[in-house]
Design a protein that fits this description.
Chain A: It holds the Pfam family SWIM. Chain A: GO terms for molecular function: zinc ion binding. Chain A: Keywords: Metal-binding, Zinc, Zinc-finger. Chain A: InterPro entries: Znf_SWIM. The complex is a heterodimer of chains A (483) and B (602). Chain A is of the alpha+beta class and 483 residues long. Chain A folds into 4 domains: 6-100, no CATH class; 140-242; 264-358, OB fold (Dihydrolipoamide Acetyltransferase, E2P); 370-480, Beta Barrel (OB fold (Dihydrolipoamide Acetyltransferase, E2P)), CATH 2.40.50. Chain A is 37% helix and 25% strand. Chain A has helices spanning 6-12, 16-27, 81-91, 103-127, 140-167, 174-186, 193-207, 212-242, 254-258, 264-269, 362-370, 376-387, 435-438; strands at 31-36, 42-47, 55-60, 68-71, 97-98, 273-289, 294-303, 309-317, 333-341, 350-352, 355-358, 397-407, 412-415, 421-423, 448-459, 464-473, 478-480. In chain A, α2 packs across α3, α5 (140-167) runs antiparallel to α8 (212-242) and α7 (193-207) runs antiparallel to α8 (212-242). The two termini of chain B are 76 Å apart. Among the domains of chain B are: 3-81, no CATH class; 107-181, no CATH class. The chains are: A alpha+beta (483), B mainly alpha (602). The interface between A and B is large, with 79 and 72 residues.
Chain lengths: 483, 602
C-alpha cells in the first residue's frame, strides 16, 4: 500500500476542513482499534466519537484507484473524517493489527462484485450486438411543450432587454433593479436557466454601487450578449420546433448557453468522446459564480497529444456545497479512458468518468511545451476571431511559447520568436497573489524560452488586447502563478 | 481602417446606452459621424454597414430605437473586438530576476486559505497562519510576497508571528522581497523589514542600517539604533543620538550604548542617570553587562546618601529621588555585585537617620537588593534586621533566614512573631505566604502542599492554633495529630460546595488519606449537589474521581437531581468513568481515572 501517501489522501478528502479534522483524529489518538487485512486491501478500525459507541469505519482498496470508504457516523461527506483519519493513521505509520475481513464488509464486497459482473455482461452483450443499447426515447409532445415555453421565455427576456436599452443605463435606480431581480426570478419558469443566469449577471453588475462609469461599459456588453442570445436562441428553437427530430446543436455552445446540462450519455450518443487521453493540469482556480448560485472549481488542462487547452468545471451549487467534494490542484497526469467533450468553440469543456493517474515526468512537461503556439500573430488572430462573437467565451485561454518575459515602464510583456509582443495585465483574474510581485522572483531561466498558459482579455474601454500568464511551463516543471 | 473613427462611434453608442435609446432620434453628435463612415465605406464595406445601422437608429421612432441601437452596437462591438491593440510602448528590458528556486506546487486548498489570511482583514487569520506554519506549507514562491506584506498588518500579532517564525525559516529567499518592500521613511512594518534584513544578511546591509539611522523615519531610526548597538565604531553616532530631542530615540540609544559597554558609553549612561529624566535610563543600565558601570553607580549612590543626610528641604527630596534611581539601576545584577553593594546597603539600612517616612521607597528597594545579593554575609546582615526598627524589616529578615538557617532554627526564631495581627506579624505572614506560593507553583501547575522536608513540622500546629486554615491545608501531612480534627471542625463551621476553603479543606483531607473524607464529600454532594451551577470545580472533579467504586450508584442518583444540565452531564461522565474503571488496583485507580478524565477534557 505504498501508494497511500498523505498527498494521495489529501486528494481524496472532500475539503480542507476534512483533511485537518482527519489528521487531528490521529493526533488526538482517537482511534481505539486499527486493523488491516492480511492481503492489505482493507483498513478498518474504531474511532471515538461524541456518542457512547465508537464509530466503525473502513476503507476498502480492493479497487486501488477508487477506494470505498464506509463509516457508521452520520456525516454526508465521503470519505468522512473518520475514514480519512484511518488512512492518515496508516500513512503516518501508526501500528495496525492484522485481522480477518469483518463479515459485513465481506458481504458488501460480494454484492459489489455481482453488480460489477452484471454490468460487464450487459456491456459484452451490447458489444457483441445481441442487445443494442436502447436509444433514449424522447417524449415528443413534452419536448414541443418545453420548446414553446423556452421561446416564450426568450420573448420575455427580449422585452426586458429592449426596455432597459430604451430607458438607458443611467436611469437605473434601486427600484428598477429590484424589478429586474423579480423578473429574473420569473425567468426560472421557462426552462432556460442559462439565459436566466446571464440576466442575473447583468443585474449583479448594475447592483455594484462602486464606480458606475466602469460598470456601464460592461453592462452594455452584457446587453449585447443578451440580445444576440435571444436572437440566435429563438431562431434555433423555432427551427427545432419545426423539426423535432433534428439533433441538438453541437457546433456552438448555444444549448449550454440556454441552460442545457449535457449528460454524459447524450455526449456519447453524439460521438463527442475522445479515447485514451492524457491530460496535464496547467492551472486551477476556484471562484464563486453569484449569478448561477454556485462555486466553480475550474481546471485548465493541456492535452499531451495535441496541445489543446481544455477546461474542467466542477460546479457546486450553494445549496449542496457542503456535501460535495471540493476539487483541488492536481499535479500528476490524468489518463482518461473516455474524455467527454462538450459542444462549443474555444476552450472545450471536458469531463471524464474513469481515469487513472500517474506522476508527471519531464517528458510530459516537454510535450506540453513543444505544443505551445509559437507565433503571436496567429494566436491573436484566432483569439480575435473567437471573441468577436458576442456569445463566445470572453476570456479564451491559450498555450503560447515565449522568447522572453520582459519589462516596460507600463508592465510586463511576452515576446515571441518573431519579436512580436503580448502585453501583460495582472488584473484579468482576481487572486490574492500578485503576478507583478511573483514574476521577478523567478529564476532567470524560467523567464526565457519557455511556454506560458495565458488568459486573454479585450478591454473595451481602452481597446487593448492583453494577457495574464497563469502558469509557465518549462522542461522540468510547471510554475503555477495562480494555483 | 480608421480606428479613431470607430472609437468615436463607440463613445457615442455608449453615451446612448447610458442615456437611453429613446433619445437617439436625430442625435446630432451621432449624425455628424455618418458622413465619415460613408466615406470610408467606399473602400471598406463594413463601414457602410455601420453607416446604415447608424442612420437606421437616427431615423427610428422611439419604440423601435432600442432594437436599432442594439443592432448598431452589436456590429460595432464585433468589429472592435477584432481591432484589439497589442502594441507595446517603449523598449522592453529583461527582468532583473531574483532567481528563487522555490517550488509552486502547493495546492489550492492549502495555498488559498493562507493567502487569504495574509491579505485580508478579519478574524481567525492568525490561527490559519499557525496551521500553515505547522504544515510547513508556507515555503512556496507564491506566498512569499504576501508573507512579507503581512509585516504591515495592523493586527500586531500577525506581523510578530511572521517576523519571528515564518520569515527566519524562509531565509535568504525573503531577502529580495524585503529589499523591494523596504521604505526608510515608513512605519513599524518597515522597521521589521530592516531588522529582518539585518538578521538574514548581517554586515551586508550595514550601510542600509546606517542610512536608516541617519535619515530614516522615527520607527526606522529606532530599529537602526538598536541594531547598531553591536558596533563599537558606531559609538559616536550612538552618543549623538542619546542626546536627541525625542525621548524614544534617546531611550533606544541608551540601550544600544548599554550593549556597547565602552568607557565612553558607560560615562554617557552615568551622566544620563544623573540628569533630570534619569528614570528613563534605569532599564538600559540594568540591561548592561559591563559591571564597571554599576560599580561607579554604587560609589555615586554612597555619596548621594551622605548628601541626603546632610541636606534638608527641597534639596533633600531631590537627593532622595536620585538615590532611588541609583539603587533601582542595580537591580538584576545583585548577586554579581554582592561584594561591592553590601557596604552601601548596610549603610543605608543601618543609618537610623535614614529610616524615616520619606525614604520608605528607597528602604524597600534597598532591602530587596539585599535579598538579591544572596551572599552569606548579606543574609547574615538581613537576619540581624529581625528586631530592628520595630521589626519593620521582619519579612526580609525571614526570607534571608529561610535561606541560611536550619528548619528548627527558623521556627524557633520566628514562630512567636507570626502570632497576632500586629503590623510586623502581618508583614511576616505575607512573606511566609509568598514563599509558600512560590513553592506551590514550582512545576507550573498549582500544587496543593509544600514540598516534604521544606519546613519544620511544628508550623502546621502553629497555623491551626492561629486559625490560618489556608496554610494548614498546605502544610498538613498524613499522621499530623489533631489536624484532621481541626479541618473537620472547619467543615462543620461552614461547608459550601462552591466555596474555595471548603474544597481546599476537603482536598487536603483526601490528600492526607483521612478515612472519612469520601463520606464527607458525599454528604456535601447530597446536601448541596443541587446548588452547583454553571461549572464544577476541578478539585471537586478530582475528588469524585478518587472515590471508591461502590459510591457510583449514589453519585448517579445525586447527578440525576442536578439542576444545571451541563454540570449534570459532566457529573454523569465522571460516574461513568468511575464505573468503567477496573476493580483491582484500588490505590492506583484514582490517578488512572483522573488521567482519563484529563485526557477527555483536553
Amino acid at each position: 500500500m505504498n501508494f497511500l501517501t498523505e498527498a494521495f489522501i489529501d486528494h481524496l478528502a472532500p475539503n480542507a476542513g476534512a483533511m485537518k479534522n482527519g489528521r487531528d483524529l490521529v493526533k488526538k489518538n482517537s482511534f481505539q482499534v486499527l486493523h488491516i487485512t492480511e492481503d492489505r486491501t482493507l483498513l478498518f478500525g474504531e474511532c471515538k466519537g461524541s456518542g457512547k459507541e465508537p464509530y466503525r469505519c473502513s476503507v476498502d482498496f480492493i479497487q486501488q484507484d477508487s477506494p470505498v470508504s464506509r463509516c457508521s457516523c452520520p456525516s454526508r461527506q465521503f470519505p468522512c473524517k473518520h475514514a480519512l483519519g484511518l488512512m492518515y493513521a496508516f500513512a503516518l505509520g501508526k501500528p495496525f493489527e492484522q485481522a480477518d475481513v469483518p463479515s459485513d464488509i465481506a458481504e458488501k464486497r460480494e454484492k459489489a462484485e455481482k453488480r460489477e459482473e452484471k454490468k460487464k455482461e450487459a456491456e459484452s452483450a451490447e458489444a457483441s450486438g445481441d442487445a443494442p443499447r436502447a436509444k433514449r426515447k424522447v417524449n415528443k409532445s413534452a419536448l414541443i411543450k418545453k420548446i414553446n415555453a423556452q421561446i416564450e421565455g426568450l420573448g420575455l427576456l427580449e422585452k426586458l432587454v429592449l426596455q432597459t436599452v430604451q430607458n438607458g443605463l443611467g436611469g437605473i435606480d434601486k427600484q428598477t433593479i429590484s424589478l429586474l431581480q423579480d423578473q429574473a426570478k420569473q425567468m426560472g419558469n421557462y426552462y432556460i436557466p442559462g439565459a436566466q443566469a446571464e440576466l442575473k449577471d447583468l443585474v449583479q453588475l448594475l447592483t455594484d454601487e462602486e464606480d458606475r462609469e466602469a460598470v456601464y461599459t460592461r453592462a452594455m456588453e452584457q446587453l449585447i450578449r443578451l440580445h444576440v442570445l435571444v436572437r440566435k436562441g429563438r431562431s434555433y428553437l423555432e427551427q427545432r420546433l419545426a423539426e423535432p427530430d433534428s439533433p441538438q446543436d453541437t457546433e456552438t455552445a448555444l444549448e449550454e448557453l440556454l441552460g442545457h446540462a449535457w449528460q454524459l450519455a447524450e455526449l456519447r450518443e453524439l460521438g463527442r468522446v475522445k479515447r485514451d487521453t492524457e491530460l496535464l493540469q496547467l492551472s486551477f482556480m476556484s471562484y464563486t459564480d453569484a449569478a448561477r448560485g454556485e462555486y466553480v472549481d475550474a481546471g485548465w488542462w493541456g492535452d499531451l497529444q495535441d496541445g489543446s487547452v481544455h477546461i474542467t468545471k466542477h460546479l457546486r451549487p450553494f445549496r449542496a456545497a457542503k456535501a460535495m467534494k471540493e476539487e483541488d490542484t492536481f499535479l500528476g497526469v490524468m489518463q482518461a479512458e473516455e474524455l467527454f467533450v462538450y459542444p462549443g468553440d474555444g476552450n472545450a469543456r471536458v469531463r471524464w468518468e474513469k481515469a487513472k493517474q500517474r506522476d508527471a515526468a519531464e517528458a510530459d512537461y516537454r510535450a506540453v511545451k513543444s505544443l505551445a503556439a509559437a507565433s503571436y500573430i496567429e494566436v491573436v488572430k484566432a483569439v480575435k476571431n473567437g471573441i468577436k462573437n458576442p456569445l463566445s467565451d470572453r476570456n479564451p485561454v491559450k498555450l503560447v511559447a515565449f522568447e522572453a518575459i520582459e519589462k516596460t515602464e507600463e508592465g510586463y510583456v511576452l515576446r515571441d520568436a518573431q519579436g512580436k509582443y503580448l502585453p501583460v495585465s495582472p488584473t484579468i483574474i482576481k487572486a490574492p497573489q500578485r503576478l507583478e510581485e511573483i514574476l521577478p522572483l523567478l529564476p532567470a531561466e524560467d523567464l526565457r524560452g519557455q511556454a506560458a498558459l495565458v488568459m486573454f482579455r479585450h478591454d473595451v474601454d481602452t481597446g487593448r488586447l492583453e494577457v495574464q500568464p497563469m502558469s509557465i511551463i518549462t522542461e522540468r516543471r510547471v510554475v503555477r502563478l495562480l494555483y | 481602417m480608421s480606428i479613431e473613427l470607430l472609437l468615436n462611434l463607440q463613445q457615442e453608442v455608449r453615451r446612448l446606452f447610458v442615456a437611453g435609446s429613446a433619445l437617439a432620434e436625430g442625435d446630432l453628435r451621432l449624425s455628424k459621424l455618418v458622413p465619415s463612415l460613408r466615406k470610408i465605406g467606399e473602400a471598406a464595406p463594413v463601414f457602410s454597414r455601420l453607416a446604415d445601422a447608424a442612420e437606421g437608429l437616427l431615423s427610428a421612432p422611439r419604440a423601435a430605437s432600442s432594437v436599432k441601437l442594439l443592432e448598431l452596437s452589436t456590429l460595432l462591438s464585433a468589429i472592435l473586438h477584432t481591432q484589439g491593440k497589442t502594441d507595446v510602448q517603449g523598449n522592453p528590458q529583461p527582468i532583473e530576476s531574483a532567481g528563487l528556486q522555490l517550488s509552486t506546487e502547493l495546492t489550492y486548498r492549502r495555498l488559498h486559505p493562507m493567502l487569504t489570511a495574509l491579505t485580508t482583514k478579519g478574524q481567525g487569520r492568525l490561527e490559519q497562519l499557525r496551521q500553515s506554519y505547522e504544515e510547513r506549507s508556507f515555503l512556496d514562491l507564491r506566498v512569499i510576497p504576501a508573507i512579507c506584506g503581512a509585516l504591515d498588518d495592523v493586527y500586531a500579532e500577525i506581523p510578530e508571528f511572521v517576523q519571528d517564525k515564518m520569515i527566519p525559516e524562509i531565509g535568504q529567499a525573503a531577502v529580495p522581497v524585503l529589499r523591494t518592500g523596504l521604505n526608510l521613511q515608513g512605519g513599524k512594518g518597515d522597521a521589521r523589514r530592516l531588522k529582518l534584513l539585518y538578521q538574514l544578511q548581517g554586515d551586508l546591509v550595514l550601510e542600509l542600517v546606517k542610512e536608516a539611522g541617519d535619515s530614516g523615519s522615527l520607527e526606522l531610526k529606532l530599529a537602526a539604533i538598536e541594531l547598531l548597538g553591536g558596533y563599537p565604531d558606531q559609538e559616536d553616532f550612538l552618543l549623538e543620538q542619546s542626546a536627541e530631542k525625542r525621548r524614544e530615540v534617546r531611550q533606544a540609544a541608551y540601550y544600544a550604548l548599554a550593549r556597547l559597554g565602552t568607557p565612553k558609553a558607560i560615562g554617557r549612561l552615568l551622566e544620563a542617570s544623573k540628569s533630570k529624566g534619569g528614570e528613563q535610563v534605569i532599564d538600559a543600565i540594568r540591561a548592561c553587562d559591563e559591571l564597571a558601570l554599576h560599580k561607579r553607580i554604587i560609589i555615586e549612590a554612597d555619596q548621594e546618601l551622605s548628601r541626603c543626610l546632610e541636606l534638608a528641604g527641597k534639596e533633600r527630596v531631590t537627593a532622595i529621588g536620585q538615590l532611588y534611581t541609583y539603587i533601582r539601576c542595580l537591580e538584576g545584577h545583585g548577586h554579581q555585585l554582592a561584594a561591592e553593594a553590601l557596604p552601601l546597603v548596610k549603610r543605608l539600612l543601618h543609618t537610623e537617620a535614614f529610616i524615616v517616612a520619606d525614604t520608605e521607597a528607597v528602604q524597600e528597594t534597598a532591602a530587596d537588593l539585599l535579598l538579591e545579593l544572596n551572599s552569606e554575609e548579606a543574609d547574615a546582615f538581613g537576619i540581624e534586621l529581625h528586631t530592628l526598627y520595630k521589626r519593620k524589616f521582619i519579612g526580609y529578615s525571614f526570607r534571608a533566614a529561610y535561606r541560611r538557617l536550619s528548619l528548627t532554627e527558623l521556627y524557633d526564631r520566628y514562630a512567636e512573631d507570626v502570632k497576632g495581627r500586629s503590623a510586623s506579624a502581618k508583614s511576616l505572614q505575607s512573606a511566609l505566604q509568598s514563599l509558600v506560593n512560590s513553592q506551590l507553583y514550582e512545576d507550573g501547575e498549582r500544587g496543593y502542599a509544600v514540598p516534604e522536608g521544606a519546613w519544620d513540622s511544628r508550623w502546621v500546629h502553629l497555623f491551626a492554633e492561629q486559625g490560618m486554615t489556608e496554610l494548614v491545608c498546605c502544610f498538613a501531612r498524613e499522621g499530623d495529630r489533631g489536624i484532621p480534627a481541626y479541618l473537620t471542625s472547619k467543615l462543620e463551621e461552614r461547608a459550601r460546595i462552591n466555596d474555595h476553603q471548603t474544597l481546599n479543606v476537603l482536598t487536603t483531607l483526601f490528600r492526607i488519606n483521612y478515612k472519612k473524607a469520601p463520606e464527607l464529600l458525599l454528604e456535601l454532594l447530597r446536601s448541596q449537589g443541587k446548588r452547583m451551577f454553571y461549572y464544577m470545580d476541578i478539585r471537586l472533579q478530582r475528588m469524585i474521581a478518587l472515590l471508591p467504586k461502590s459510591y457510583a450508584t449514589e453519585l448517579r442518583i445525586i447527578a440525576e437531581g442536578m439542576a444545571y444540565e451541563s454540570v449534570k452531564q459532566h457529573m454523569i461522565e465522571l460516574v461513568e468513568a468511575l464505573e468503567a474503571a477496573p476493580d483491582d488496583a484500588a490505590s492506583e485507580r484514582g490517578s488512572g481515572v483522573w488521567e482519563w478524565i484529563k485526557n477527555k477534557m483536553s
